[in-house]
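Worked problem 6 (solution included).
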Amino acid sequence: MDTAVELVEIYLRLNGYLTLSEWQIQTLSDAGQWQTLTDVDILGLRFPGEIYLADLHDAALRETMRMTGELLMLEDDTVDVIVGEVKEGEAVFNPAVAHHETLHTALHRLAWLYEEGDLEKIIEDLGDHGVCHTPARGGGVVRTRLVAFGRASGLTMNTVPIGQILERLATIFDTYDQVLRSMKFSNPAAATLNLLHKTGFQISRDS
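Solution. The predicted structure is:
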């Protein structure tokens, strides 16, 4: 897996997202041959509610474990769905990510979240605006959005600077050292960050 994708995935998971990564989208060509249209680097799903790094019965102590997810612009009482493009360079979208075939294949996995018949509207809105708010099946709201992770000058609904993700992960590993020290990470990027922290290295941006 790409290192940048690994960084994004561990940040999303720490903040309560269920994820699929590097998912190849297959499509049938005009010649009748199956081909890979593109990869969806990251598909994330987060249900509403607070997320804690560890579950504790003591309310005051539990609050110290709360993940704020400030880079993710979470909205109260809203399911968040991210179709993400991850770049080591500039945070831009591969044009194929917004193709109907790509979005339909990706969002069909989550179709139960949406009210019957909403999927086509969501795909159209994502292509036009990059974000769509729709009713959730059974009540509530689902926010579905395209997000590019990479080098960027600022944070927006559709762009998350990967440098800020790295800085935030470094802070999490430092702040929650006693919690994370005993964990084993299958994600190589997370394991490397954990090792650097354990051995005393610090990650900081040049001024």
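Discussion: The chain has seven helices and eight strands.
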